[in-house]
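--- STAGE predict ---
source: upstream dedup step, 1 unique chain passed
mode: sequence only
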Amino acid sequence: MATISYWRCFVLVLAIIPVISVTRWIVGLQQFSCHTRDDDSVTAISELWSIAQNMSAEEIFRYLHWTNSTSCLFAVDFGFFIRNGEGLAAPDGHKAICLDLPVSPVYNSCIVYSFGINNQWSFDKAMSDFRCKVYSFDPSMGEEDHDESQYIHFYNLGLAGKNGRHPSNGWKMETASSIYQKLLPYHGSVAIDIFKMDIEFSEWEVIPEMMKSGFLANHVKQLAVEIHFDPNDSLATFRNHVHILQKLESASPSDAGQFIRFSSRPNPWLKRELSILHGKEDYIGLELAWYNSRYFRA
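--- STAGE serialize ---
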């Protein structure tokens, strides 16, 4: 049996506390062992995650807003511009990156995949200033493949859960695994230090595909995603989306998860009245960031 480091166990416990009641936890934690990762402990963790499938709307948003910021000592924002409009001026375009070793990108020796540009290059340029090779993708911009700079390489290609054409726009879409294979001649068989996506709801089909294929677990060190909801989404839809995030954060190898959240921040321009909260306002767009726990030694 392998031994889990105590800090990782602590993070796993914290990851579940915000989403279920204290009463459920008293029962659930009796099944949980922080010292081993045998079949029994994996089953116990999975059972705790399954309890969260019955979360209320309020519990869902507590879970979404939970930062778990103590899991990364040096979380740094890369790339932002000041967006001014709608009565609000605030930073936009930035992503949280964990600079803790060994998940930190290495200066002048790092790979970034950036999906969803929308003509805002602040994040990509910030990563290029860190001397990372940045591969940027956005078919909605209508631009041909080109080198935006010495370090930034743009592709007229979108990210999806399967290869093919976008049903509405005809854009060329590919899975993460397919794109990675295409770019192997350029960056070799290396881990992607930062995998960023802001792809307007398509994350809900892309993340499951990346987990199922093993691409996330085997090729990605850090994942930064803006997640999206519709203000009129049903409680069942919210639960289904949250379940995807829970599987990503699960300790179960069968879920291809083991990603540790270290940042959660709302998009200040996406605060809306929500049906599941009976008209109360909350955010339908949040920036979440995780690192792959497999890059930390057990």
